[in-house]
Design a protein that fits this description.
It is found in: Periplasm. The chain has 282 residues and is of the alpha/beta class. The protein contains twelve helices and eleven strands. 45% of the residues are buried.
């Protein structure tokens, strides 16, 4: 096992708040009491520090420090410093001490292909529809299968961005306009297959490399959330957005199942902060 500890044989992850902050504090205190020593965990995401997700994670880290009297030491690594979601997922399957931000499509590569369904085109017209699906028995069953087949524990899968659109050097008002276009897509089967069906040549380039890829003509266009693309300054190198709302991504966090299982019960009971904050995402 490759967890970095500061004196404990127990791994730890982000604290969970229950419904109220008072309950969260109580759970955090109990979690700290059951840990043998200070524990260290890394939180990985691929977005910049100015993206909406980063300050939310900073809130989590601050709450955890307060609620556990500093016994859970968490550090955020933004901008794919620890690799993209696929690389982070691989680290978690080898029991690295990492909590990683991912999409349902990424999880589909870890032994439960049914996660690709969640990234199907035009699946959830509204945010409420997506939240209902995230809380369904279907998704709960997938999460259980992932624990057994992929060795990963899903901590939350209800962090939603705005529906996705297409950014390029020209508009694409009709499906046939996409024929032959080199389209950057996430490294997830549902995305690749969808844009193959639409006649594009999908390119699974890391998001951190997309600015240069658009600038240098490696890709003609990219699909993504408008807010995320604007935050990455992609509009500097591609100036036309075609509103399509073709995907509403199911984002969330996961970690090693083995490391999660080693947590004291009190620490397992405090994992819901990520889930609670996810309900606030748009």
């Amino acid at each position: 096992m490759k967890v970095k500890f500061l004196g404990s044989t127990v791994s730890a992850m982000a604290v969970v708040a229950t419904v109220t902050m008072a309950q969260a504090a109580e759970n955090g205190a109990q979690c700290a009491a059951e840990l043998d020593g200070e524990a260290y965990f890394r939180i990985s995401h691929q977005n910049s520090t100015t993206s909406p997700i980063h300050p939310k994670l900073e809130e989590i880290v601050a709450d955890i420090g307060e609620q556990t009297d500093g016994k859970l030491k968490l550090e955020i690594f933004p901008a794919a410093q620890l690799g993209g979601p696929v690389q982070a997922l691989e680290q978690a399957t080898f029991d690295e001490n990492i909590i990683f931000y991912m999409s349902a499509g990424n999880l589909a590569t870890a032994g439960v292909a049914d996660y690709s369904i969640l990234n199907g085109p035009f699946l959830t017209p509204t945010l409420e529809d997506a939240q209902k699906l995230a809380a369904s028995d279907l998704v709960t069953e997938m999460n259980g299968q992932l624990s057994k087949k992929g060795g990963l524990r899903v901590l939350a899968l209800n962090w939603f961005d705005a529906p996705r659109s297409i950014l390029g050097h020209k508009p694409y008002p009709k499906p046939e306009d996409l024929s032959g276009i080199k389209m950057r897509v996430p490294e997830a089967p549902a995305y690749v297959r969808t844009f193959e069906v639409l006649g594009t040549a999908p390119q699974t380039i890391p998001f951190s490399e997309l600015y240069l890829a658009l600038q240098q003509g490696v890709v003609d266009a990219a699909e993504g959330g408008i807010r995320g693309m604007a935050d990455a300054n992609l509009m500097e190198v591609a100036d036309t957005v075609t509103i399509t709302d073709h995907f509403r991504l199911f984002y969330g966090f996961a970690m090693s199942e083995n490391l999660f299982s080693e947590l004291p019960i009190a620490c397992q009971d405090v994992r819901l902060l990520l889930d609670d904050l996810g309900k606030c995402q748009q």
